[in-house]
Design goal:
single chain; 248 residues; alpha+beta; Phosphorylase Kinase, domain 1; 2 domains; 6-stranded antiparallel β-sheet; 3-stranded antiparallel β-sheet; 9 helices; 11 strands; globular; binds adenosine-5'-triphosphate; binds magnesium ion
């Protein structure tokens, strides 16, 4: 069976490990997340590795990914080089092919020891230092945007936070859908919609963002709230059509 892979230059010693990733992954019981894809923490000597196993696509998409488009694992890897220090250290990716069609694929990064994701202060009204975290998060997002990095899936579970002394360190994950371009005022305001934040928290974030961006706070916050409410309305409309429960 054919495989395609790339490994970051700092991790040449992980070549065999990556070749054996299917067994390693199957035999490990340390699943940290399982939805469409599965994430597991693996160990190699002292190195903590987070491996993301992508769901095998349907037949049609296997064709597409094999001949026309890059796999999500490969995209994550290529994007990571551009995202740099804003994402956990990249290790590599590997794709396994069967009869010329993409089968399993994995993306590996170094495990980032985070304390919480941004979902927690967003959901818990009494989260310690909540507003301070949101302001630090606004500054992180601004720094990301200034480097022309736009995360198309900037949702709460994809934003990891670690507290270090008085500081907060943020990392983004799930980076197979990104855009690299100078960001307009509107796109910056729109970038916070997927947080699904309440108005009060969103205001805290967007006021801080506007301050460093050097634009009118009222105007920027109005836009941010507008896009967020618009997304909620659209998503809730779709949910109601499907007869699902609407939360916010
Ligand atoms: N390098 C990493 N270090 C620490 N934790 C990580 C790392 N990568 C992923 N995680 C954890 O795994 C969770 C899910 O990862 P990720 O967002 O990539 O997968 P996903 O949401 O299942 O992806 P998708 O939306 O494509 O199905 C994150 O919220 C985080 O808790
Ligand atoms: Mg995710």
């Amino acid at each position: 069976m054919k495989k395609k892979y790339e490994i970051e230059k700092n991790f040449p010693f992980l070549r065999d490990f990556i070749f054996r990733i299917k067994e390693q992954f199957k035999n490990s019981s340390s699943s940290i997340h399982k939805a469409r894809n599965e994430i597991k923490n693996l160990k190699h000597d002292d190195l903590n590795i987070t491996a993301k196993s992508f769901k095998i696509p349907n037949f049609f998409n296997r064709l597409i990914y094999s001949f026309f488009r890059k796999s999500k694992a490969k995209k994550s890897y290529l994007h990571a080089a551009k995202v740099g220090d804003f994402t956990p250290k990249t290790i590599g990716y590997i794709e396994f092919y069967e009869n010329f069609l993409l089968n399993e694929s994995y993306f590996l990064s170094e495990y980032f020891k985070y304390d919480f994701t941004i979902r927690e202060p967003l959901l818990d009204k009494n989260f310690k230092n909540k507003d301070e975290i949101f302001r630090a998060f606004a500054r992180f997002t601004f720094a990301l945007h200034e480097k022309n990095i736009f995360h198309k899936d900037f949702s709460p579970g994809n934003i990891l936070v670690k507290q270090k002394d008085e500081e907060y360190i943020f990392k983004i994950v799930d980076i197979n859908r990104m855009k690299f371009q100078a960001l307009s005022f509107n796109l910056r305001a729109k970038s916070f919609s997927k947080l699904w934040a309440n108005d009060e928290d969103l205001k805290t974030v967007s006021n801080e963002y506007a301050k460093i961006y050097g634009v009118d706070k009222e105007l920027f916050t109005k836009k941010t709230l507008h896009y967020s409410r618009q997304l909620k309305r659209n998503m809730n409309f779709k949910k109601r059509l499907k007869g699902e429960r609407v939360v916010d």
